[in-house]
Protein backbone atom coordinates (compact mmCIF):
# COMPACT_ATOMS: atom_id res chain seq x y z
CA UNK A 1 0.00 0.00 0.00
CA UNK A 2 1.20 3.52 -0.81
CA UNK A 3 2.38 5.77 2.01
CA UNK A 4 0.38 8.93 2.66
CA UNK A 5 1.97 12.37 2.30
CA UNK A 6 0.12 15.14 4.17
CA UNK A 7 -0.16 18.43 2.30
CA UNK A 8 0.17 21.48 4.54
CA UNK A 9 -0.68 24.64 2.63
CA UNK A 10 0.79 27.92 3.86
CA UNK A 11 -0.40 30.20 1.02
CA UNK A 12 -2.40 32.20 3.55
CA UNK A 13 0.52 32.61 5.97
CA UNK A 14 3.99 32.34 4.39
CA UNK A 15 2.60 33.05 0.91
CA UNK A 16 0.70 36.05 2.07
CA UNK A 17 3.82 37.59 3.63
CA UNK A 18 4.81 38.82 0.14
CA UNK A 19 4.60 42.63 0.24
CA UNK A 20 1.58 43.84 -1.71
CA UNK A 21 -0.13 40.42 -1.85
CA UNK A 22 -2.23 40.79 1.28
CA UNK A 23 -5.78 39.47 1.10
CA UNK A 24 -8.77 40.55 3.13
CA UNK A 25 -10.68 38.03 5.24
CA UNK A 26 -13.35 37.40 2.59
CA UNK A 27 -10.68 36.64 -0.01
CA UNK A 28 -8.83 34.38 2.43
CA UNK A 29 -12.02 32.42 3.07
CA UNK A 30 -12.43 31.99 -0.69
CA UNK A 31 -8.89 30.56 -0.94
CA UNK A 32 -9.39 28.36 2.14
CA UNK A 33 -12.59 26.88 0.72
CA UNK A 34 -10.83 26.16 -2.57
CA UNK A 35 -7.97 24.49 -0.67
CA UNK A 36 -10.50 22.38 1.20
CA UNK A 37 -12.26 21.35 -2.00
CA UNK A 38 -8.96 20.26 -3.56
CA UNK A 39 -8.16 18.03 -0.56
CA UNK A 40 -5.45 19.93 1.35
CA UNK A 41 -4.94 18.27 4.77
CA UNK A 42 -3.77 21.26 6.82
CA UNK A 43 -4.33 24.96 6.11
CA UNK A 44 -2.00 27.40 7.84
CA UNK A 45 -4.44 30.29 8.16
CA UNK A 46 -2.25 32.98 9.69
CA UNK A 47 -0.05 34.29 12.49
CA UNK A 48 -2.76 35.57 14.87
CA UNK A 49 -0.63 37.70 17.18
CA UNK A 50 0.87 39.61 14.24
CA UNK A 51 -2.24 41.71 13.50
CA UNK A 52 -5.99 41.92 14.20
CA UNK A 53 -6.53 41.07 10.49
CA UNK A 54 -4.57 37.82 10.81
CA UNK A 55 -6.37 36.95 14.04
CA UNK A 56 -9.75 37.53 12.45
CA UNK A 57 -8.85 35.50 9.37
CA UNK A 58 -7.93 32.48 11.50
CA UNK A 59 -11.25 32.82 13.34
CA UNK A 60 -13.31 33.11 10.15
CA UNK A 61 -11.46 30.38 8.24
CA UNK A 62 -11.93 28.06 11.23
CA UNK A 63 -15.68 28.65 10.93
CA UNK A 64 -15.82 28.40 7.12
CA UNK A 65 -13.86 25.21 6.60
CA UNK A 66 -14.90 21.77 7.80
CA UNK A 67 -12.46 18.94 7.41
CA UNK A 68 -8.87 20.27 7.00
CA UNK A 69 -6.94 20.99 10.15
CA UNK A 70 -6.56 24.74 10.71
CA UNK A 71 -3.12 25.78 11.87
CA UNK A 72 -2.00 29.04 13.51
CA UNK A 73 1.63 30.15 13.71
CA UNK A 74 3.33 31.45 16.85
CA UNK A 75 6.79 32.23 18.12
CA UNK A 76 7.94 30.37 21.22
CA UNK A 77 6.29 33.06 23.29
CA UNK A 78 3.41 32.44 25.75
CA UNK A 79 1.36 35.44 24.57
CA UNK A 80 1.58 34.28 20.91
CA UNK A 81 0.37 30.83 21.94
CA UNK A 82 -2.55 32.18 23.97
CA UNK A 83 -3.66 34.40 21.07
CA UNK A 84 -3.35 31.51 18.57
CA UNK A 85 -5.43 29.25 20.82
CA UNK A 86 -8.08 31.95 21.08
CA UNK A 87 -8.14 32.43 17.28
CA UNK A 88 -8.56 28.67 16.80
CA UNK A 89 -11.54 28.36 19.13
CA UNK A 90 -13.99 27.57 16.29
CA UNK A 91 -11.71 25.11 14.46
CA UNK A 92 -13.08 21.58 14.24
CA UNK A 93 -9.44 20.46 14.28
CA UNK A 94 -6.97 23.12 15.42
CA UNK A 95 -3.17 23.00 15.41
CA UNK A 96 -0.68 25.37 17.01
CA UNK A 97 2.57 25.73 15.08
CA UNK A 98 5.20 27.05 17.46
CA UNK A 99 8.96 27.22 17.12
CA UNK A 100 12.28 28.98 17.43
CA UNK A 101 15.49 29.48 15.45
CA UNK A 102 18.04 26.69 15.97
CA UNK A 103 21.00 27.61 13.74
CA UNK A 104 24.05 29.08 15.46
CA UNK A 105 23.44 32.33 13.66
CA UNK A 106 19.85 32.58 14.96
CA UNK A 107 20.85 31.51 18.48
CA UNK A 108 23.66 34.04 18.70
CA UNK A 109 22.39 37.06 16.78
CA UNK A 110 18.61 36.78 16.93
CA UNK A 111 18.23 35.49 20.48
CA UNK A 112 21.61 36.36 22.06
CA UNK A 113 21.31 32.96 23.69
CA UNK A 114 22.95 29.53 23.76
CA UNK A 115 22.02 26.05 22.56
CA UNK A 116 20.78 24.69 25.92
CA UNK A 117 18.62 27.72 26.60
CA UNK A 118 17.02 27.43 23.13
CA UNK A 119 16.06 23.81 23.85
CA UNK A 120 14.48 24.93 27.15
CA UNK A 121 12.47 27.63 25.37
CA UNK A 122 11.37 25.21 22.63
CA UNK A 123 10.23 22.62 25.18
CA UNK A 124 8.41 25.24 27.26
CA UNK A 125 6.56 26.52 24.17
CA UNK A 126 5.43 23.04 23.12
CA UNK A 127 4.30 22.21 26.67
CA UNK A 128 2.40 25.47 26.91
CA UNK A 129 0.71 24.95 23.51
CA UNK A 130 -0.30 21.45 24.64
CA UNK A 131 -2.41 23.04 27.38
CA UNK A 132 -4.66 24.46 24.63
CA UNK A 133 -4.64 21.88 21.81
CA UNK A 134 -3.62 18.26 21.38
CA UNK A 135 -2.17 18.86 17.89
CA UNK A 136 1.11 20.80 18.29
CA UNK A 137 3.64 21.26 15.52
CA UNK A 138 7.14 22.53 16.24
CA UNK A 139 9.38 24.35 13.72
CA UNK A 140 13.15 24.63 14.03
CA UNK A 141 13.67 27.84 12.09
CA UNK A 142 16.75 27.78 9.84
CA UNK A 143 17.03 24.01 10.34
CA UNK A 144 18.66 23.93 6.88
CA UNK A 145 21.76 25.57 8.39
CA UNK A 146 21.50 23.92 11.81
CA UNK A 147 24.09 21.38 12.88
CA UNK A 148 22.44 17.94 12.57
CA UNK A 149 23.54 16.61 15.98
CA UNK A 150 22.10 19.64 17.72
CA UNK A 151 18.94 19.59 15.58
CA UNK A 152 18.39 15.97 16.63
CA UNK A 153 18.62 17.00 20.32
CA UNK A 154 16.06 19.77 19.79
CA UNK A 155 13.67 17.48 17.92
CA UNK A 156 13.92 14.71 20.49
CA UNK A 157 13.19 17.19 23.29
CA UNK A 158 10.15 18.74 21.62
CA UNK A 159 8.65 15.35 20.74
CA UNK A 160 9.10 14.34 24.38
CA UNK A 161 7.28 17.58 25.32
CA UNK A 162 4.34 16.60 23.10
CA UNK A 163 4.97 17.82 19.52
CA UNK A 164 3.24 15.50 17.06
CA UNK A 165 4.68 17.10 13.90
CA UNK A 166 8.24 18.40 13.61
CA UNK A 167 8.89 20.90 10.87
CA UNK A 168 12.41 21.15 9.40
CA UNK A 169 12.46 24.43 7.45
CA UNK A 170 15.17 25.37 5.02
CA UNK A 171 14.31 28.97 5.84
CA UNK A 172 16.95 30.59 3.65
CA UNK A 173 16.70 28.11 0.75
CA UNK A 174 20.37 27.23 1.24
CA UNK A 175 20.47 23.42 1.20
CA UNK A 176 21.30 21.12 -1.69
CA UNK A 177 18.82 18.26 -2.24
CA UNK A 178 21.27 15.58 -1.16
CA UNK A 179 22.19 17.55 1.96
CA UNK A 180 18.56 18.17 2.89
CA UNK A 181 17.65 14.53 2.29
CA UNK A 182 20.52 13.42 4.54
CA UNK A 183 19.33 15.81 7.25
CA UNK A 184 15.89 14.18 7.30
CA UNK A 185 17.46 10.68 7.23
CA UNK A 186 19.75 11.71 10.13
CA UNK A 187 16.72 12.68 12.22
CA UNK A 188 14.94 9.44 11.30
CA UNK A 189 17.95 7.45 12.45
CA UNK A 190 19.14 9.45 15.44
CA UNK A 191 16.06 10.77 17.23
CA UNK A 192 14.97 7.96 19.53
CA UNK A 193 11.28 8.98 19.67
CA UNK A 194 10.90 10.04 15.99
CA UNK A 195 8.21 7.38 15.42
CA UNK A 196 5.90 9.50 17.64
CA UNK A 197 5.89 12.44 15.20
CA UNK A 198 5.54 13.24 11.53
CA UNK A 199 8.51 15.00 9.93
CA UNK A 200 7.58 18.01 7.76
CA UNK A 201 9.60 19.78 5.08
CA UNK A 202 9.28 23.55 4.61
CA UNK A 203 11.61 24.66 1.82
CA UNK A 204 12.27 28.09 0.37
CA UNK A 205 13.29 28.63 -3.21
CA UNK A 206 16.22 31.07 -3.01
CA UNK A 207 18.42 28.80 -5.12
CA UNK A 208 15.54 27.35 -7.13
CA UNK A 209 15.76 24.09 -5.15
CA UNK A 210 12.62 24.21 -3.01
CA UNK A 211 10.78 21.40 -4.78
CA UNK A 212 13.92 19.29 -5.23
CA UNK A 213 14.70 19.64 -1.52
CA UNK A 214 11.13 18.80 -0.55
CA UNK A 215 11.19 15.65 -2.68
CA UNK A 216 14.58 14.68 -1.22
CA UNK A 217 13.08 15.11 2.25
CA UNK A 218 10.09 12.95 1.35
CA UNK A 219 12.31 10.25 -0.13
CA UNK A 220 14.17 10.16 3.16
CA UNK A 221 11.17 9.88 5.43
CA UNK A 222 9.31 13.20 5.69
CA UNK A 223 5.54 12.69 5.43
CA UNK A 224 4.27 16.27 5.47
CA UNK A 225 5.14 18.81 2.76
CA UNK A 226 4.64 22.51 3.43
CA UNK A 227 3.76 24.29 0.23
CA UNK A 228 2.01 27.25 -1.35
CA UNK A 229 -0.11 27.65 -4.47
CA UNK A 230 2.04 28.81 -7.42
CA UNK A 231 5.04 28.61 -5.05
CA UNK A 232 4.35 32.12 -3.82
CA UNK A 233 6.13 33.37 -0.74
CA UNK A 234 8.70 35.87 0.41
CA UNK A 235 11.77 36.41 -1.79
CA UNK A 236 11.91 33.56 -4.32
CA UNK A 237 8.96 31.83 -2.69
CA UNK A 238 8.14 28.45 -1.16
CA UNK A 239 7.80 24.95 -2.57
CA UNK A 240 4.79 24.88 -4.87
CA UNK A 241 1.85 22.65 -4.06
CA UNK A 242 1.12 21.78 -7.67
CA UNK A 243 4.68 20.57 -8.28
CA UNK A 244 4.74 18.26 -5.25
CA UNK A 245 1.25 16.90 -5.95
CA UNK A 246 2.08 16.16 -9.60
CA UNK A 247 5.47 14.62 -8.78
CA UNK A 248 3.74 12.18 -6.41
CA UNK A 249 1.12 11.44 -9.07
CA UNK A 250 3.60 10.93 -11.93
CA UNK A 251 6.19 8.95 -9.99
CA UNK A 252 4.41 5.78 -8.95
CA UNK A 253 7.86 4.40 -8.17
CA UNK A 254 7.91 6.56 -5.01
CA UNK A 255 4.77 4.76 -3.80
CA UNK A 256 3.56 7.85 -1.98
CA UNK A 257 0.16 9.44 -2.47
CA UNK A 258 -1.52 12.69 -1.48
CA UNK A 259 -5.19 13.51 -1.02
CA UNK A 260 -5.01 16.26 -3.66
CA UNK A 261 -7.63 16.30 -6.41
CA UNK A 262 -5.20 17.46 -9.07
CA UNK A 263 -8.03 18.46 -11.42
CA UNK A 264 -8.58 21.52 -9.20
CA UNK A 265 -4.98 22.73 -9.53
CA UNK A 266 -5.37 25.09 -12.48
CA UNK A 267 -8.47 26.76 -11.14
CA UNK A 268 -7.01 27.47 -7.68
CA UNK A 269 -3.77 28.66 -9.24
CA UNK A 270 -5.74 31.28 -11.19
CA UNK A 271 -7.86 32.23 -8.16
CA UNK A 272 -4.76 32.89 -6.04
CA UNK A 273 -2.99 34.73 -8.85
CA UNK A 274 -6.01 36.96 -9.45
CA UNK A 275 -6.78 37.68 -5.82
CA UNK A 276 -3.15 38.42 -4.96
CA UNK A 277 -2.42 40.30 -8.18
CA UNK A 278 0.58 38.05 -8.54
CA UNK A 279 1.21 36.93 -12.12
CA UNK A 280 2.21 33.33 -12.78
CA UNK A 281 5.38 33.22 -14.86
CA UNK A 282 4.51 31.77 -18.31
CA UNK A 283 7.03 28.92 -18.03
CA UNK A 284 6.07 27.96 -14.46
CA UNK A 285 5.88 24.17 -14.16
CA UNK A 286 2.32 22.75 -14.16
CA UNK A 287 0.38 26.05 -14.11
CA UNK A 288 2.30 28.45 -16.38
CA UNK A 289 0.61 29.53 -19.60
CA UNK A 290 3.28 27.74 -21.63
CA UNK A 291 3.48 24.62 -19.47
CA UNK A 292 1.66 22.56 -22.10
CA UNK A 293 2.30 24.67 -25.23
CA UNK A 294 4.39 22.93 -27.84
CA UNK A 295 5.82 25.34 -30.38
CA UNK A 296 8.58 23.44 -32.14
CA UNK A 297 7.46 21.58 -35.25
CA UNK A 298 9.05 18.31 -34.10
CA UNK A 299 7.23 18.44 -30.77
CA UNK A 300 3.87 19.37 -32.31
CA UNK A 301 4.13 16.51 -34.76
CA UNK A 302 5.01 14.10 -31.95
CA UNK A 303 2.20 15.27 -29.68
CA UNK A 304 -0.36 14.96 -32.48
CA UNK A 305 0.72 11.37 -33.17
CA UNK A 306 0.82 10.42 -29.50
CA UNK A 307 0.52 12.89 -26.65
CA UNK A 308 2.87 10.91 -24.41
CA UNK A 309 5.77 11.44 -26.85
CA UNK A 310 6.42 14.84 -25.31
CA UNK A 311 3.94 15.21 -22.45
CA UNK A 312 4.28 13.46 -19.11
CA UNK A 313 1.12 15.10 -17.78
CA UNK A 314 -2.29 15.17 -19.42
CA UNK A 315 -3.38 18.85 -19.08
CA UNK A 316 -6.84 17.60 -18.08
CA UNK A 317 -5.27 16.02 -14.96
CA UNK A 318 -4.50 19.50 -13.65
CA UNK A 319 -7.86 20.89 -14.74
CA UNK A 320 -6.83 22.56 -17.99
CA UNK A 321 -9.68 22.01 -20.34
CA UNK A 322 -9.28 23.75 -23.67
CA UNK A 323 -13.04 23.59 -24.11
CA UNK A 324 -13.48 25.95 -21.19
CA UNK A 325 -12.96 29.01 -23.46
CA UNK A 326 -16.58 29.24 -24.48
CA UNK A 327 -18.10 32.55 -23.47
CA UNK A 328 -18.99 35.09 -26.16
CA UNK A 329 -21.23 38.16 -26.42
CA UNK A 330 -24.17 35.78 -26.84
CA UNK A 331 -23.57 33.90 -23.57
CA UNK A 332 -26.17 34.47 -20.90
CA UNK A 333 -25.93 35.11 -17.17
CA UNK A 334 -26.31 31.40 -16.40
CA UNK A 335 -23.21 30.51 -18.44
CA UNK A 336 -21.24 33.26 -16.74
CA UNK A 337 -22.45 32.14 -13.30
CA UNK A 338 -21.51 28.55 -14.10
CA UNK A 339 -17.94 29.42 -15.20
CA UNK A 340 -17.43 31.57 -12.11
CA UNK A 341 -18.69 28.78 -9.87
CA UNK A 342 -16.27 26.33 -11.47
CA UNK A 343 -13.63 28.67 -10.02
CA UNK A 344 -15.30 28.85 -6.61
CA UNK A 345 -16.61 32.38 -7.18
CA UNK A 346 -20.18 32.47 -5.90
CA UNK A 347 -21.93 35.79 -6.48
CA UNK A 348 -25.24 37.15 -5.21
CA UNK A 349 -27.69 38.25 -7.92
CA UNK A 350 -26.73 41.97 -7.75
CA UNK A 351 -23.03 41.28 -7.98
CA UNK A 352 -23.62 38.82 -10.81
CA UNK A 353 -25.63 41.45 -12.72
CA UNK A 354 -22.78 43.94 -12.28
CA UNK A 355 -20.18 41.47 -13.54
CA UNK A 356 -22.47 40.51 -16.42
CA UNK A 357 -22.69 44.17 -17.53
CA UNK A 358 -18.89 44.39 -17.53
CA UNK A 359 -18.75 41.08 -19.35
CA UNK A 360 -20.99 42.40 -22.16
CA UNK A 361 -18.84 45.54 -22.51
CA UNK A 362 -15.72 43.38 -22.71
CA UNK A 363 -17.38 41.08 -25.24
CA UNK A 364 -17.81 44.14 -27.51
CA UNK A 365 -14.05 44.46 -27.79
CA UNK A 366 -12.96 40.83 -27.39
CA UNK A 367 -14.45 37.88 -29.26
CA UNK A 368 -13.77 34.96 -26.92
CA UNK A 369 -13.96 35.56 -23.21
CA UNK A 370 -11.98 33.04 -21.19
CA UNK A 371 -11.91 32.09 -17.53
CA UNK A 372 -9.07 34.48 -16.69
CA UNK A 373 -11.05 37.36 -18.17
CA UNK A 374 -14.16 36.68 -16.14
CA UNK A 375 -12.17 36.14 -12.93
CA UNK A 376 -10.54 39.48 -13.54
CA UNK A 377 -13.97 41.10 -14.11
CA UNK A 378 -15.31 39.52 -10.93
CA UNK A 379 -12.37 40.97 -9.01
CA UNK A 380 -12.79 44.49 -10.40
CA UNK A 381 -15.29 45.54 -7.74
CA UNK A 382 -12.34 46.58 -5.60
CA UNK A 383 -11.56 49.33 -8.12
CA UNK A 384 -15.24 50.37 -8.33
CA UNK A 385 -15.22 51.04 -4.57
CA UNK A 386 -11.90 52.90 -4.50
CA UNK A 387 -11.61 56.53 -3.39
CA UNK A 388 -9.76 57.69 -6.52
CA UNK A 389 -11.25 56.47 -9.81
CA UNK A 390 -10.31 57.01 -13.43
CA UNK A 391 -13.13 58.99 -15.02
CA UNK A 392 -11.70 59.23 -18.51
CA UNK A 393 -8.43 59.01 -20.38
CA UNK A 394 -7.67 60.43 -23.79
CA UNK A 395 -4.29 59.87 -25.36
CA UNK A 396 -2.71 60.88 -28.63
CA UNK A 397 0.52 59.18 -29.52
CA UNK A 398 2.39 57.85 -32.51
CA UNK A 399 5.79 57.67 -34.16
CA UNK A 400 7.60 61.00 -34.54
CA UNK A 401 5.19 62.97 -32.34
CA UNK A 402 5.15 63.72 -28.64
CA UNK A 403 2.49 61.82 -26.67
CA UNK A 404 -0.17 63.91 -24.99
CA UNK A 405 -2.72 62.69 -22.43
CA UNK A 406 -5.81 64.21 -20.80
CA UNK A 407 -6.97 62.54 -17.63
CA UNK A 408 -10.14 62.94 -15.58
CA UNK A 409 -10.20 61.63 -12.02
CA UNK A 410 -13.07 61.20 -9.61
CA UNK A 411 -11.77 61.69 -6.08
CA UNK A 412 -14.42 60.85 -3.50
CA UNK A 413 -17.10 62.19 -5.85
CA UNK A 414 -15.26 65.40 -6.88
CA UNK A 415 -14.06 65.76 -10.50
CA UNK A 416 -10.52 66.80 -11.50
CA UNK A 417 -8.88 67.15 -14.91
CA UNK A 418 -5.32 67.60 -16.18
CA UNK A 419 -3.29 67.25 -19.37
CA UNK A 420 0.42 66.55 -19.89
CA UNK A 421 2.89 65.43 -22.51
CA UNK A 422 5.50 62.71 -22.13
CA UNK A 423 7.89 60.42 -23.94
CA UNK A 424 5.13 57.84 -24.49
CA UNK A 425 1.39 57.47 -23.78
CA UNK A 426 1.90 55.91 -20.33
CA UNK A 427 4.44 58.53 -19.30
CA UNK A 428 2.13 61.36 -20.47
CA UNK A 429 -0.84 59.85 -18.60
CA UNK A 430 1.15 59.38 -15.40
CA UNK A 431 2.37 62.98 -15.57
CA UNK A 432 -1.24 64.15 -15.97
CA UNK A 433 -2.31 62.11 -12.91
CA UNK A 434 0.60 63.61 -10.94
CA UNK A 435 -0.71 67.11 -11.69
CA UNK A 436 -3.88 66.19 -9.84
CA UNK A 437 -2.38 64.10 -7.02
CA UNK A 438 0.32 66.24 -5.49
CA UNK A 439 2.43 63.55 -3.87
CA UNK A 440 6.00 62.40 -4.43
CA UNK A 441 5.77 58.97 -6.02
CA UNK A 442 7.97 56.97 -8.36
CA UNK A 443 7.14 53.97 -10.52
CA UNK A 444 9.60 51.24 -9.50
CA UNK A 445 8.29 48.26 -11.46
CA UNK A 446 5.98 48.07 -14.45
CA UNK A 447 4.91 44.73 -15.89
CA UNK A 448 2.45 44.24 -18.75
CA UNK A 449 1.13 40.77 -19.46
CA UNK A 450 -1.48 39.58 -21.94
CA UNK A 451 -3.94 37.16 -20.34
CA UNK A 452 -4.09 34.78 -23.29
CA UNK A 453 -3.11 35.33 -26.89
CA UNK A 454 -4.85 37.46 -29.59
CA UNK A 455 -4.41 41.18 -30.29
CA UNK A 456 -7.87 41.82 -28.78
CA UNK A 457 -6.66 40.37 -25.52
CA UNK A 458 -6.86 42.01 -22.09
CA UNK A 459 -3.57 43.40 -20.86
CA UNK A 460 -2.88 42.99 -17.15
CA UNK A 461 -0.57 45.55 -15.61
CA UNK A 462 1.26 45.16 -12.30
CA UNK A 463 2.95 48.26 -10.99
CA UNK A 464 5.03 49.06 -7.93
CA UNK A 465 4.97 52.68 -6.84
CA UNK A 466 7.27 54.09 -4.17
CA UNK A 467 5.89 56.71 -1.81
CA UNK A 468 7.32 57.82 1.53
CA UNK A 469 9.90 55.04 1.56
CA UNK A 470 7.29 52.31 1.06
CA UNK A 471 6.36 50.24 -1.98
CA UNK A 472 2.68 50.02 -2.96
CA UNK A 473 1.36 47.52 -5.49
CA UNK A 474 -1.24 48.35 -8.11
CA UNK A 475 -3.09 46.26 -10.64
CA UNK A 476 -5.07 47.15 -13.76
CA UNK A 477 -6.65 45.14 -16.54
CA UNK A 478 -8.09 46.48 -19.77
CA UNK A 479 -8.09 45.73 -23.48
CA UNK A 480 -6.34 49.12 -23.78
CA UNK A 481 -2.93 48.71 -22.16
CA UNK A 482 -2.46 52.44 -21.54
CA UNK A 483 -5.76 52.47 -19.63
CA UNK A 484 -4.67 49.30 -17.75
CA UNK A 485 -1.40 51.03 -16.82
CA UNK A 486 -3.17 54.08 -15.44
CA UNK A 487 -5.67 51.90 -13.58
CA UNK A 488 -2.70 50.10 -11.97
CA UNK A 489 -1.06 53.43 -11.09
CA UNK A 490 -4.26 54.73 -9.51
CA UNK A 491 -4.79 51.41 -7.69
CA UNK A 492 -1.35 51.83 -6.08
CA UNK A 493 -2.07 55.48 -5.18
CA UNK A 494 -5.35 54.43 -3.55
CA UNK A 495 -3.39 52.24 -1.15
CA UNK A 496 -1.56 55.18 0.41
CA UNK A 497 -4.11 57.92 -0.30
CA UNK A 498 -6.52 56.08 1.99
CA UNK A 499 -4.09 56.07 4.92
O1 LIG B 1 10.66 29.57 6.68
C1 LIG B 1 10.44 29.34 7.88
O2 LIG B 1 11.32 28.98 8.65
C2 LIG B 1 9.08 29.55 8.36
C3 LIG B 1 8.78 29.08 9.76
C4 LIG B 1 8.11 30.15 10.54
C5 LIG B 1 7.97 27.81 9.70
O3 LIG B 1 8.23 30.01 7.65
ZN1 LIG C 1 8.85 29.88 5.51
What this model shows, in words?
- Helix content is 40%, strand content 21%.
- The model has no long low-confidence stretch (mean pLDDT 90).
- Helix 1 (25-38) links the parallel strand 2 (6-9) and strand 3 (42-46).
- The protein has 17 helices and 16 strands.
- Helix 2 runs parallel beside helix 3 (78-87) and helix 16 packs parallel to helix 17.
- It folds into three domains: 3-276, TIM Barrel (Alpha-Beta Barrel); 293-377, no CATH class; 388-497, Alpha-isopropylmalate synthase LeuA, regulatory domain (Double Stranded RNA Binding Domain, 2-Layer Sandwich), CATH 3.30.160.270.
- The chain has 499 residues and is an alpha/beta fold.
- It is globular, with a radius of gyration of 25 Å.
- It has an eight-stranded parallel β-barrel with strand order 2-3-4-5-6-7-8-9, surrounded by seven helices. A three-stranded antiparallel β-sheet has the order 11-12-13.
- The protein binds 3-methyl-2-oxobutanoic acid and zinc ion.
- Residues 14, 169, 171, 202, 204 line the site of zinc ion.
Alpha carbon gyration radius: 25 Å
Number of E-type strands: 16
Q: How would you name the CATH homologous superfamily of the largest domain?
A: Aldolase class I
Architecture of the largest domain in CATH? Alpha-Beta Barrel
How many domain units? 3
Largest sheet: 8 strands, parallel, barrel
- CATH classification, class level of the largest domain: Alpha Beta
Per the CATH scheme, the topology name of the largest domain is TIM Barrel
- Morphology: globular
Please tell me the overall pLDDT: 90
> What fraction, in percent, of the residue positions are helical?
25-40%
Amino acid sequence: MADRLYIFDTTLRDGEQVPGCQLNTVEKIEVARALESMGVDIIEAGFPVSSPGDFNSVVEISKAVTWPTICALTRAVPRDIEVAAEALRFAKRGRIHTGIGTSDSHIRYKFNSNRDEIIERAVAAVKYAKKFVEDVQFYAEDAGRTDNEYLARVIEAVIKAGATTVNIPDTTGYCLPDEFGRKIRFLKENVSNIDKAIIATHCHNDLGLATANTVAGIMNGARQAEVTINGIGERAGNTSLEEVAMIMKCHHDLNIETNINTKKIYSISRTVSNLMNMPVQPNKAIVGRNAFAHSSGIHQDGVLKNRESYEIIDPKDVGIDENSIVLTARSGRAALKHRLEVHNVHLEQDALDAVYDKFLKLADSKKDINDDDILMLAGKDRIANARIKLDYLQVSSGVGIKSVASVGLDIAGEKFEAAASGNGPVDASIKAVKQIIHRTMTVKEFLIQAITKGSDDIGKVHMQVEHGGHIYYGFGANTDIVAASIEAYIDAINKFAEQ
